[in-house]
Structure formats: structure tokens, C-alpha cells
């Protein structure tokens, strides 16, 4: 007597993975997400591996999770996958305070982000 299964929100040829609470600002994360949007997954993985951005390892891990979800849960062919969507959401912001001169205080904000990657299987047009 469990809950009924929720309807699938994605089409049958798509799979997604979500990474929550990544310790980086959404603006910086969006630069790396824009690097892989619309590319084939093997090219996107190669770009992330050789990227010099600190967060590219976490983005690569999320992309690999989306690929594994597509292969294992939805029986999609890995060779035909592209990164259909890669978008960034804003999460919480930790506020910290640092003492400054003359008894004042400086506010330091430490933002977090969410990353969602959707991969889609496309047929090769020969």
C-alpha cells in the first residue's frame, strides 16, 4: 500500500540528473553549463575534463549521472545522446560578517547553486 507512481514529466527519449547545493555562485556555474549545452555527450565530457574551472568536476559528475540514468532507467542509446538542457538555479546564500576598520562590519555572501542537466536521444540523420 504505497503511493501511486508519479507520472513521468519528461518525454520518453529524455533523462535528467540534478546536483543540488553546489558551493559556487549561479553566475559562475552558468558559464560552465553554457559550455556543454547542445553538444553530444562525449564531446561535452571531454570539454569538462580539460576545463580549468574548479566546478567543472561536479558538472562532469552530474552529466555522467544523467547519462547513466538514460542508459539504465530509460534504455536509451548512449552514442545518440546530446545535452538538451543545462540550467542553473539559485539556492541558499550563507551570510558571514568580517570586521573592518573603525568598528564597521563587512558582509560576505557565500552563494549556493542547483544544476539540472537533461540529455535527449536524437537519431543521426545520414
From TrEMBL:
Q: Which GO terms describe its molecular function?
A: rRNA binding; structural constituent of ribosome
Q: Which InterPro entries match?
A: Ribosomal_uL22, Ribosomal_uL22_bac/chlpt-type, Ribosomal_uL22_bac/org-type, Ribosomal_uL22_CS, Ribosomal_uL22_sf
Name the source's superkingdom. Bacteria
**Presence of keyword Protein biosynthesis:** no
The alphabetized UniProt keywords are: Ribonucleoprotein, Ribosomal protein, RNA-binding, rRNA-binding
User: Which Gene Ontology cellular component annotation is one that this UniProt entry carries?
Assistant: cytosolic large ribosomal subunit
Pfam families given in the database record: Ribosomal_L22
User: What GO biological process term is on the record, naming one?
Assistant: translation
The similarity comment for this entry is: Belongs to the universal ribosomal protein uL22 family.
Indicate the quaternary assembly: Part of the 50S ribosomal subunit.
Functionally, this protein is described as follows: The globular domain of the protein is located near the polypeptide exit tunnel on the outside of the subunit, while an extended beta-hairpin is found that lines the wall of the exit tunnel in the center of the 70S ribosome.
Mind telling me which PANTHER family this protein's record contains?
A: CHLOROPLAST 50S RIBOSOMAL PROTEIN L22-RELATED, LARGE RIBOSOMAL SUBUNIT PROTEIN UL22M
Official protein name in the record: Large ribosomal subunit protein uL22
Species the sequence originates in: Agaricicola taiwanensis
The upper taxonomy is: Bacteria, Pseudomonadati, Pseudomonadota, Alphaproteobacteria, Rhodobacterales
Q: Which gene encodes it?
A: rplV
